[in-house]
User: Fold DUF4248 domain-containing protein from Bacteroides caccae.
Amino acid sequence: MKKVKEIDDEDEWSIKGFKSFSIAAVEYFPEYTSTDAAIKRMRHDIENDAQLLADLKPTHYTHKTARLSPKQQCILFTTWGPPEIKLHGHDETPENQK
Assistant:
């Protein structure tokens, strides 16, 4: 299960309206080869995290939610951090370290 992420002042996150649950699931769980598997995993993680589920309930989240509201996205971001992390700077891969 993903843990709460600390966000520093330089992190940037833009929420532009509602987002498809399936798109969010694939963003948070890119290691899954199918969208359905990512959706299943995301719903499982949400429903097995009592605090996260309690935070989402007042926003009308249900097991069948198909589109995440900006508030729901914000709750997920606050709990799990951004679904994708972009690092700026030089390449730190071993073959590029000389």
Confidence is low (pLDDT under 50) at residues 1-9. Residues 19-80 form one domain. Residues 4 and 78 are 7 Å apart (CA to CA).
